[in-house]
Structure formats: C-alpha cells, structure tokens
C-alpha cells in the first residue's frame, strides 16, 4: 500500500508538472524590448527555445544595426559609391523585402532614408533641433531605393552613389521577429507571442482563449487602448508619431521621415497593420503611415491577407474592410494605436 501511495504521488506530481503555463522572458533588443511568451507544458524546453531566440535576435541586430562599424549595413554604407560588399544572406533577404515594400508604396518607404537620419536625430542620440533646410534638400537626391543593388549570385550589396546610406529601421525588427517565430516552431512550440517594440507575431492560443492585442491611443497614456483584436497565426505592427518626437513652435516632429520632403510625415498619427508575417507588417506600417490615410488604405485594400487601422491627424479612425467586423471596444472618438498583446 505504501508503495502504491508513493507511485500515485509520483503520478500526481508528474501531472502537476505537465500542467500548461505561460513561460515569459524579456530583454532589451534593437533599441526597444523583446518579449516572448510561450504557453507550454514543458517549461525547460520552452525556456531553452526562448533563449535560442534571444541569441538569434542579437545576431541579427549585430548584422543590421547602423550603430556598429562592423555590421553589414555599416560596411555597406561605408563603401557607398565605391564597391559592392559581401553581406549575410539574412541581410540580403531583409533588403529584398524592403525593396518590395518600396515598390508597393511608390518609394514612400525607402530603405536608403539613412542619408536623412543623420540630420534628424531621434534614437539614443536624440537632438531636439530642426536641421538646416538647405542641407535636407542637398541630401534628398541620395534617397532612392533603386540605387541599392543586391546581387544574390555573388552575395553582395552595393549603394551606387557616395553619401547614400541604407537603414533597416523600418523593417528590421519585423524581419527579426519572423526569425524568432521560426526558431520557436522548430522547437515544436505552437502557442506563443513574440513582441519587439511595435512589432509582434501571435501563434496558436493562450490556453483556452485567443491572444488579444490592443491598439493604443496616439495621444493618450501608454496603457490606454481604443480597440482590441483576437489574433492567431498573424503579425501585427504599429507605427506612430508618439514614440520618438519633440515639439518646436507647437509642431510635433517625429522619427518617421518622408523621403520626398526630408521631413517627418504628416497625415497620420498611428497605423496598425495585420499581415501574414512580421516583415510585411513592419514595412507596411511605416509605408502606409508615409502614404497617408487615403493612399495608404487604398494600398492595404489591394494586398491579399493585409488589413489596417489608421488614425489620421484629426484622430479619426479608418478601418479596412477586412477588420470592420473583428475589432472590439472601438470608440467613435478614440482615446487610438501601438500594440500590446496578452
């Protein structure tokens, strides 16, 4: 009997240990926070996969950042107008994805906007000053994605003109999120979310319910949301004018630069994109923001599997046809857009 009780105790302990739970980890990455949560019945396996995902995210950041002289993007920029440089397959893939979004948006999204980023400082080097308009005009011709050549045959990338600068800030996080998703799935995990700043991907379910994301009010506190959405196996990305900005003479200047004017884009306060993958969602959230509400929504409606919520510069909410019956808690005049998952 004692042996039976002991065996029963071990069986019950094993059952308790196998109870599904949420395994969560976060750490700084790519200038924001990378958060991963997995609903799993094997916490050690989930934790090990999350750690591999963090390592991969760091590896991609080292390849793509403009803040390290040894990165592939920094070397590409240093050789602009002189010679092609060998870059990693992942960098070539991200550059090709950026070109695709550039073509969709007629060049409003442009991976070579880095020529302007050195004038406007919104990252850890933020400087609340408006650059000299003459210098902005001088650099505008250096922004043209068509002068970025990616040669898959030899594994190189090349910026045709001296002074050009590639910058993956509008699509790099989404690309890295997709790589993390692949790692988690390779580990046999199916129910999880991955979030890096305003870019996230959700897979499966959170136990007995769907993952729920919120769209933030671009003029309210960080925890105020005007709409929610239940998601599975989908990417969700938000670009807004409220993350990195400063005011000058009553005007808000933010980090999303229009490559046709060299100034922060106008017309939108927040754009949230749903897409099958995070790379597409990330690039389009920036691209649609730059296109503005009318042209941006027209593009969304043309792309299969893509949906959007746009908050314009008067705080009006515009919802694409693919989402009108799926949003919850929408208010007519929103407290409205940045994403959060839970």
Number of helical segments with 4 or more residues? 9
Note the run of SSEs as H and E: HEEHHEHHHEEHEEEEEEEEHHEEE
Please give the order of strands in the largest beta sheet. Answer: 1-2-6-7-10-13-14-15
Report the principal-axis shape.
Answer: globular
- The mean pLDDT is 89
Major sheet summary line: 8 strands, antiparallel
Report the β-strand fraction as a percent range: 25-35%
Low-confidence stretches: 4-8, 12-16, 330-338
Helix/strand structural class: alpha+beta
Task: Give structural notes.
It contains nine helices and 16 strands. Mean pLDDT is 89; it is low at 4-8, 12-16 and 330-338. It starts with a helix and ends with a strand. Helix 8 packs antiparallel against helix 9. The chain is α+β, with helices and mostly antiparallel strands and 342 residues long. 32% of the residues lie in helices and 26% in strands. The radius of gyration is 22 Å and the shape is globular. The longest helix is centred in the first third of the chain and has 22 residues, at 43-64. The chain has an eight-stranded antiparallel β-sheet with strand order 1-2-6-7-10-13-14-15, with helices on one face. The chain has a three-stranded antiparallel β-sheet with strand order 3-5-4, with helices on one face. It has a three-stranded antiparallel β-sheet with strand order 9-8-16, with no helix packed on it.
């Amino acid at each position: 009997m004692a042996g039976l009780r002991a065996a029963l105790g071990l069986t019950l302990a094993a059952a308790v240990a196998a109870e599904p739970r949420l395994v969560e980890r976060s750490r700084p990455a790519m200038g924001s926070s990378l958060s991963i949560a997995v609903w799993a019945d094997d916490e050690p396996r989930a934790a090990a996969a999350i750690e591999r995902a963090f390592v991969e995210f760091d590896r991609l950041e080292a390849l793509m950042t403009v803040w390290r002289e040894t990165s592939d993007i920094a070397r590409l920029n240093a050789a602009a107008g002189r010679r092609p440089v060998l870059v990693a397959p992942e960098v070539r893939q991200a550059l090709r994805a950026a070109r695709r979004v550039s073509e969709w948006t007629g060049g409003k999204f442009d991976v070579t906007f880095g020529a302007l980023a050195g004038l406007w400082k919104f990252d850890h080097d933020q400087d609340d000053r408006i650059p000299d308009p003459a210098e902005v005009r001088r650099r505008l011709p250096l922004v043209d994605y068509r002068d970025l050549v990616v040669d898959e045959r030899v594994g190189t990338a090349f910026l045709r003109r001296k002074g050009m600068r590639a910058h993956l800030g509008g699509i790099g996080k989404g690309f890295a999120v997709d790589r993390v998703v692949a790692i988690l799935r390779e580990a046999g995990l199916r129910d999880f979310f991955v979030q890096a700043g305003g870019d996230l991907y959700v897979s499966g379910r959170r136990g007995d319910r769907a993952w729920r994301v919120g769209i933030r009010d671009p003029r309210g506190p960080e925890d105020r949301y005007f709409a929610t959405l239940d998601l599975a196996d989908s990417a969700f990305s938000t670009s807004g004018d409220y993350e990195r900005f400063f005011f000058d003479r009553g005007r808000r200047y933010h980090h999303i630069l229009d490559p046709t004017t060299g100034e922060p884009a106008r017309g939108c306060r927040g754009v949230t994109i749903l897409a099958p993958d995070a790379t597409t969602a990330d690039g389009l959230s920036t691209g649609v923001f730059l296109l503005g509400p009318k042209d941006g929504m027209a593009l969304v409606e043309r792309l299969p599997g893509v949906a959007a919520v746009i908050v314009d510069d008067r705080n009006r909410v515009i919802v694409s046809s693919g989402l009108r019956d799926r949003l919850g808690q929408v208010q007519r005049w929103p407290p409205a857009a940045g994403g959060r998952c839970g």
